[in-house]
Amino acid sequence: FTRLRKELQEKGTLIVKENECGKESVKEETLLQKASESLSKNDPEMAAYFIAQATMLNPDNIDYRLRLADIYLKIADLNLAQVEYQDILVLDPGNKEAEKGLEKTKL
Predict the structure, then answer these.
(1) Which of 102, 62, 61, 47 minimizes the C-alpha distance to 80?
(2) Would you state the pLDDT for residue 107?
(3) Choosing a second label site near 95 at 20 to 30 A (CA), which of 10, 63, 75, 82?
């Protein structure tokens, strides 16, 4: 994570910045926008990074978790996809999208 953070700082794409209290802050909307841009540039790994950051800010957001799990599935990281889909089902039992995605991780 530290290496990726340094690389993002060098590229000027690090979204997390210090606020006036010296604490890091970021807007979820900005992270989601950067994720969308990364996907349009065919960079799902970077999109996963941005959505994971948004998920850390709002861990109960099912939409963020579904997006993240779907990207993990797309980049064939089946273990992370499976964890995300299972977490979604804990937060929202019976979520059809998560159930379908979880099945795909077992193929």
Answers:
(1) 102
(2) 78
(3) 75
Averaged pLDDT in 10-residue chunks for the chain of 107 residues:
51 48 64 94 94 91 95 94 96 96 92
Predicted structure pTM score: 0.75
> For residues 91 and 45, what is the distance between their CA atoms, to the nearest angstrom?
25
SS3 18: strand
Residues 17-46 as b or e (16 or more Cβ within 10 Å = b): eeeeeeeeebebeebbebbeebbeeeebeb
* Predicted local distance difference test score (pLDDT) of residue 10: 56
The two tokens of residue 68 are 């993240």
Neighbour tally for 75: CB within 10 Å: 13
